[in-house]
Structure formats: C-alpha cells, structure tokens
RNA sequence: UGGGGCGUGGCCAAGUGGUAAGGCGCGGGUCUUUGGCUCCCGUAUUCGAAGGUUCGAAUCCUUCCGCCCCAACCA
C-alpha cells in the first residue's frame, strides 16, 4: 500500500479549526449511526473510516450507535452483522455501543417539554391530510386545525398516545415551527408516530416511536457528540437538527456536517435495492460475493486493509461522485500482491501427456511462495507425465502474439521443464481432449534453465491434483450506471456475474485450505477459500483477476 | 417557478490571489520462468460559461448555464 499522506479533507479542516478554537471544550467525538435495517455496504465503509478516522486523528472517540427508531424495519440479525462488519474493518468502539432506543424515555421527556413550552402539538389529521396541508415546493403549507390546540390537550393526548389508547395513524406529535418555511423540513415536522409494533430491543414497551429528525440530534447530544457527520441529503435537515437542539436544550450542542456519499459504478448502493436483490433471490444472500456489502466483499476475498486504503484514496468532499470500481480492485491487488502466497491452479483443465517422460516417475520441483516476499519461502510441487494446463493456454491455430502452447510451439511449465506440443487428440465431436507433448530434460528450472521461451504456463500434476470448485465473479450489473434514467436496476443484471467451475484442479498444497485464506493463483488472479469449503473439497472465490495484458491485446485484435 | 448544495483531465481529488499536486484508468517503454509485480515516460496552456477587479484569478465580484437533494407518520 502507498504510504498514505495523512488524510486531509474539509471535514478534518473544520474539526481542526474547532479544536484549535477550543469549541466543544477541545473535545472531538463522532459516531457511526447505521439503522439496523440491512447490511453495511462499501458506502458505509467510507463513513466508518471517516468517523473513526477523524476521532483517531484528533484524539477523540467514535461511538457505534444503532439508529433503531423504526421497529417495522429493524432486526437483531442486522445489529449483529453491523457489529461484525465494523470490527472486521478494523475499528473499535470499545464500550461505546449505543442504541437510539436506549434513549426512548429521555426522548419522551424532552417531547413533553416541547409540548409544555408550546413548541410541539398533537395533530389528529391523517397522513394524507397532513400531506395535503404541507404545501408544495413553491407554495407554503397551511396550518393544521389542531395546530393551536391547548397545551394541556396536546399533553393529555400525547400521554394517551404513549399509553396505547389510539390505533396507528390517528395522531402524531408535530413540532410547531413554520408552515410557510421555504424549507419543507421546517413545516411542522413529525416528531412521534404511533406504531403498535414489536421493537427488536424494547419489545412492546412502546407504541410511539420518535422520528429520525427528532431522535438523532438528541441522541448525539446525549452521547456528547461534537461533530455529527452525515450525508448530503440531510443538509436541508440541519436547520431542524439545530432547532431540536435549541428547543430541548440537551447537555451538549453537536454540530452536523454533511459530505457526499460514495457511489460506485456497475453497482447499486441503496439498502432498499440490495434488500430487493436478496429477497428476490437474485443473489444468494447479503454476503453473496457479488454484493457491495462488507459481508459480500469479505466473502469475495477483499481484505479490510484494501477497503480502508480505498476509502483513503477516494477522499471526502461535497461533490456527488461515482468512483470507478477499478480503484477498489486496484487496492485489493496491491494489498494481496504483497501478502498472498502464490499457488498453481488450473481452472478449466486440459490434459497434457508428456510422451518422453517416464511413466510412473514423479519428481518434485521447487516453487517460490511469494516473489514479493522472500521470507515466504518455497514449497515443493509434484511433476509427472500427465498434467493439466489451462484450456485458454492452448490454441490450435494461434493468434498473433499468442505466446502460449500451440502445435509445434514450445513453452515453459513454471518451475519445471520446457515442453513442445507434438499432437492434438480430439473426440468425435472435434473437441480437443488431450495434448501430446515432449519435454526437454535439460531445461529444468534452476539448473540448465537459461533457455528463454516466450511463454510460461501454470500446471498441475494430474495424479496429485486436488479437485475443487472455483467460482468466478464478475460485475453484478451490465451497465456502468444500472439506475440510469430511473430504470429498474434489477433489469440490468449480468447473467454471467457468477460462473462455477466444479472441475478445477489445484496443486496438492492447497488440499487442506481453511476458509478465508487468500492465494494468488499464478497468472490468474487473487482467490479466497469460501466458507463452503469442506475437508478435501476446497471452494475458491475469485476476488479479482490479475491485470491481463493478453486479454487487452487479443480484444483489440 | 421555492429552498438547500455542487461544478478542476475518462473517474476520484489537491489547490484558500502568484502562474494546475497526487491516485485510478488509459497509451508507450523497461524488466520478467506469473502477458503479474517493479521502474520510466506520456496523458488539463487550463479549472461549467461569459464579463469584470488586479501587475497577476481555478481562487475575489457579477451574470448566466448545468447537475443533485427536499413535498414519508423512512433514515
């Protein structure tokens, strides 16, 4: 990884300025506040790195807070996944894990205060009527007929809302701000709504739940948050955030700062759409390796280091952005190039028989585990008369600049001998089933190996190889912007986003691989053993290919 | 047509009045028993546009243009 310059962005500038000016008593305290209504994705990783990163840079802390104010969408499954993902990314909230639901009682008390002070009222209009009264972008709203209902009446109704006397939708608590505000968020926003629903933490203790706009600023204040970092779409809510703080006078005055969320091309990033993929079984769950979720990226084979590096490199600003997925792939390659041991694996096997190699003979050749890391050592790989090479590494009629095997051509088998193709065996259908070759006994690697050959192929000894399933992943969507023009991204799925190769053959050292282990399969890419791996039956996911100059060349023609 | 934001190369992104960093991508070369890696070179006479201020403007002013967000009892 690049020895990164210390991150600097407009948020850190603000925080630095605040700290130098002694605001918030010189403290810096942030929070990462996901709603537990889905799995975290790479966009959240940007926010996590920002919030934990800012706290670390300025000697402060970052809380993990689950923003669970909507019981109908939230679930403990998500809470646990969020915790696991944040930890896996390498961040630690220590003992500071909170839930907005922890504050329900305090929130309620503040709400009564607002009612008593005439800053909030119970509205008994229906949702449709409230909408009709709200006005439009260009016309002011009209006050609800209940807006000036006596404080005592509102207080009584609010208490009875809490007591469960009313069905869903019959009343809401609204802030009394300004129905004519050009900022629609200030037109008496809803603070509490009735929801007779089971909450994943408070069960049935409550049947009224605070809205985000009300709960968030107070939750921040109660935790002593100094800088409440959120995404651009909340910019319009900042006056409301400040109004809630000013009106309820909690023990701290956090300040909201907005940045542009991450977008990646060839994928979607909203939890709603990711949920649809999962629910409609278009992927195999939230941790499907094609998903941009943290869990998916992890299963795919991404490392926390590569994701953190990615987040560092994309920067933080207020401009809407669409980052090229190639940058994410680059940070993974860069990380794994340094760290991943190499191995030989034949994904689509083509049998090779070396006709002048003695039957039954087996020799072991020495292979380097990682040329980027001399400390990684070497290993032995068995070589014999019958091998497998990659189907792609043979062309009966070689294209221009094809440096691999073809009839009459010679090629080096990595760490072993130079072979020449002398014959091609086909079945009735005309499919090539086997290659006949001869080897040059004088060409063993490391000995009389000064011979220069244009191509080097990876291979595996047929009798020693480990059978494995390899899963090749490609982008989930065909288009760079799957949602372009308001189209449904689910109609843009890449039918080839997953290709299973159940007949792959690995070098024997991979036999007992543990799930989660990374390898570079030479000449092919970085792979990670999937949790589906069983003893003697490895399953590997391709996280990312190696850069492939030949692929580019041959595409050009 | 109201309000809030944003416009620097294909994609990110520095730059805060002194004469356009860096990364990815792309192209070329080097090296090579991974067509990987490394290393080298190239890739914005110009900062959405037009005026203006200034010795000097991406940075200041004016006007215009474009894009995004907001009318959930979602977050």
Spell out the key features of this protein:
RNA-binding, alpha/beta, seven-stranded mixed beta sheet, 13 helices, elongated, single chain, 557 residues
What features would you describe in this structure?
The chain is an alpha/beta fold. Helices cover 26% and strands 23% of the residues. The strands form six sheets. It has a seven-stranded mixed beta sheet. A hairpin with a 5-residue loop joins strand 17 and strand 18 (432-440). Helix 2 (42-57) packs across helix 11, helix 7 (212-222) crosses helix 8 (238-248) and helix 11 (304-314) crosses helix 12 (325-339). The mean pLDDT is 96. It binds one RNA strand of 75 nucleotides through helix 5, strand 5, strand 6, helix 7 and helix 12.
């Amino acid at each position: 990884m690049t020895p990164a310059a210390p991150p600097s962005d407009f948020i850190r500038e603000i925080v630095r300025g605040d700290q130098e000016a002694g605001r918030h008593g010189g403290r810096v305290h942030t929070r990462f506040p996901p709603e537990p209504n889905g799995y975290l994705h790479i966009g959240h990783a940007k926010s996590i790195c920002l919030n934990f990163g800012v706290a670390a840079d300025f000697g402060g802390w970052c809380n993990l807070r689950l923003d669970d104010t909507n019981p109908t969408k939230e679930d403990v499954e998500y809470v646990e996944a969020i915790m696991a993902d944040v930890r896996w990314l390498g961040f630690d909230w220590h003992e500071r894990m909170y839930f907005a639901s922890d504050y329900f009682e305090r929130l309620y008390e503040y709400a009564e205060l607002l009612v008593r002070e005439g800053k909030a009222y119970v509205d008994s209009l229906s949702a449709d009527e409230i909408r009709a009264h709200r006005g439009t972008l260009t016309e002011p709203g009209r006050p609800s007929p209940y807006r000036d209902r006596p404080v005592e009446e509102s207080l009584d109704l609010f208490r009875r809302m809490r007591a469960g006397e009313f069905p869903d939708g019959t009343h809401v608590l609204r802030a009394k701000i300004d129905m004519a505000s050009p900022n629609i968020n200030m037109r008496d926003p809803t603070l509490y709504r009735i929801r007779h629903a089971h909450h994943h933490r408070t069960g049935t203790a409550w049947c009224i739940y605070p809205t985000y706009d009300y709960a968030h600023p107070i939750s921040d204040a109660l935790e002593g948050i100094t800088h409440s970092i959120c995404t651009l779409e909340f910019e319009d809510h900042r006056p409301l955030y400040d109004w809630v703080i000013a009106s309820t006078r909690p023990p701290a005055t956090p300040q909201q700062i907005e940045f542009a969320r991450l977008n990646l091309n060839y994928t979607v990033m909203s939890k709603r759409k990711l949920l649809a993929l999962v629910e409609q079984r278009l992927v195999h769950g939230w941790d499907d390796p094609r998903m941009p979720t943290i869990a998916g990226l992890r299963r795919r084979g991404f490392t926390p280091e590569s994701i953190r590096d990615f987040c560092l490199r994309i920067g933080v600003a207020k401009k809407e952005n669409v980052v090229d997925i190639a940058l994410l792939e680059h940070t993974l390659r860069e990380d794994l190039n340094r760290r991943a041991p190499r191995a030989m694996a034949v994904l689509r096997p083509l049998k090779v028989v070396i006709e002048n190699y003695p039957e039954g003979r087996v020799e072991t050749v020495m292979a380097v585990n990682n040329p980027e890391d001399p400390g990684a050592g070497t290993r032995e790989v068995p070589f014999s008369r019958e091998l497998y090479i990659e189907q792609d590494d043979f062309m009966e009629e070689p294209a221009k600049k094809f440096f691999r095997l073809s009839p009459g051509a010679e090629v080096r088998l990595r760490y072993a001998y130079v072979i020449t193709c002398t014959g091609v065996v086909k079945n009735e259908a005309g499919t090539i089933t086997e290659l006949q070759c001869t080897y040059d006994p004088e060409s063993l690697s490391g000995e009389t190996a000064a011979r220069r050959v244009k191509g080097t192929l990876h291979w595996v000894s047929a009798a020693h190889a480990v059978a494995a399933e390899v899963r090749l992943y490609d982008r989930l969507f065909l288009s760079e912007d799957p949602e372009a023009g308001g189209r449904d991204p689910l109609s843009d799925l890449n039918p080839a986003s997953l290709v299973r190769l159940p007949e792959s053959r690995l070098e024997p050292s991979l036999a007992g691989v543990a799930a989660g282990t990374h390898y570079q399969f030479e000449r092919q890419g970085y792979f990670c053993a999937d949790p589906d791996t069983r003893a003697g039956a490895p399953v590997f996911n391709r996280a990312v290919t190696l850069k492939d100059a030949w692929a580019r060349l041959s595409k050009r023609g």
